[in-house]
Amino acid sequence: MSPPKQSRSDSSGPSPADALHPQHASYPDITRSNALFERARGLIPAGTQTLAKGPGQWVRGVSPKYLVRGRGARVWDADGNEFIDLVMGVGPISLGYAYPAVDRAIAEQLAEGITFSLMHPLEVEVAELVREVVPGAEMVRFSKTGADVTSAAVRLARAFTGRRKVLCCGYHGWHDWYIAVTDRSAGIPSEARDLTFTFQYNDLSSVEEALDGDTACVILEPTVFEAPAPGFLEGLAALCRERGALLIFDEMWTGFRLALGGAQERFGVKADLACFSKAVANGMPLSILTGRRDVMRLCEKDVFFFTTFGGEALSLAAAKATIEEIRDRAVPERLAEQGKKLKDGYNGLARALDMPYTACSGPECRSIVTFSGPEPLLLKSLVQQEMLARGVLWGGFHTMCFSHTDEDVARVLEAYGEVLPILRDAARRGDVAARLRGEPVEPVFRKTHNFHVKPRPVG
Length: 459
Fold this sequence. Notes:
- By secondary structure, this protein is of the alpha/beta class.
- It has two domains: 18-85 and 331-435, Aspartate Aminotransferase, domain 1; 100-328, Aspartate Aminotransferase, domain 2.
- 36% of the residues lie in helices and 13% in strands.
- β1 (67-71) and β2 (74-77) form a beta hairpin.
- The radius of gyration is 23 Å and the shape is globular.
C-alpha cells in the first residue's frame, strides 16, 4: 500500500507545524475532496447525510471528506489516496467492501428487479433466516434505518402496555422520542420531551427507582464499550416483567457482530423486542424489528408500521447472503480474533510508553480508543491526523470486518508504534494543539435533557 500523497491543498505554503512531524509522514492530498465539499456548502445542511461521516468528526486540513471506492478492508478517497478502514461505513460493512458473495447476490437480484408491485419471496426467506439465528425472533418486520425500528418498537411498547414513558440508555436514532434528551432537540414538543428519560448503564437501582406505572419500556444498547455487570441484563429483564414494562434491545452494533444472534445469544438474555441494522446486509440499507409474537402482532392492525421500501429486494438479497456468510464462516469469532490483536497491541504500546491517559476498551469486534485529561479531543485529533498520514482511516474505533487481514492488523499496529510516541511527546511539551494542521474533531452532543434523572410521578 502506497502512503497518501503530500498535501498543500489547505494552505499556500508550508505549515508552521511541519517541523513538529517526522519527515516520512505523508499527509494526503485532499484537493478534490475540498472542492466537492465547497460545492456542498449551502446546499446540503451540515454538508453531510451522516453526522459521523461529516467534517466535524475529522481533522480539517488533513482528512479526506469523500470516499469513492472500497475493496476488502481498504478504501480510496476522491483524490486517489488509499487507506486501511477502521470505520467500516460507521458499522454496516461487516464482511468487507465489494464482498464477492454479497455482491453476487445483489447483481443476480438486480437482473430480476429491485422493488415490485406485490411482495417478494425474499421477505419470507430472510424472515425465516432471522428467526433461525436470532433468539426470541418470533415475528419479523423489515425497514430501512435503525431509527425506523427503534421508534416502531417504542410505539409497539406504548400500544401493548397502554403507558407513555420511555427509559433509554445509549444512542437510538433521530426520532422525537429519543433525540429530545440531547441538545439537538429543537422542533420537538415539550410533551414529547417530558416522556423520555435515561438511566446509567450497569446501574440496576437507577432503573428500579425510575420504572413507574406509566413506563412503557426500557430500551438500551445491551453493551457498547462497557461489558454488562453480572446480573445486570438479567435483572433488567426480571424488573421489566415485574413492573409490566417491555424490555427492548437496540442491537444496531451488537447484532450479527458480537455473535450471530447478537447480544441475546452472547449474554443469554432475551428481550421482548430487539432491533437490528448495520452489519446485517454488509452495507445495503436494511433494518429489522423482531420479538414476541403477541407484541409484534399489533403491527397487523393496531400499530401502523409499513413502508414502501421494507420489501426492497436488493437489500434482502444482500441480507440473506450476509447472514449465511456470518453463520457459515464463523465471522463473529474472526472479528473478535483480529480486534483483540489491535486492542491488546494498542494497550501494550501505551503501557510501554507510560501513557496512562489513553487506552483501548470494549468488545474485540468494536473497541474504542479513549483519552483522558483536560483536552481529550485534542489528543484524539492528533492521533487521527497522524494515522491518516500513515494510511489508516481512523476515527477512534476499531470496527472490524471479516476482510481485515493479518497484514492490515500488522500495518495498523506499526502505525500506532509511530504515532503514540508523537502523542506522548506532544503531551509532555504541552503543544498538542500546535501540532494539528487543522481544526480538531468536535463532540456530537454537548448536553442533554432529562439525563440520568428520575421521571416525574404519574398524574
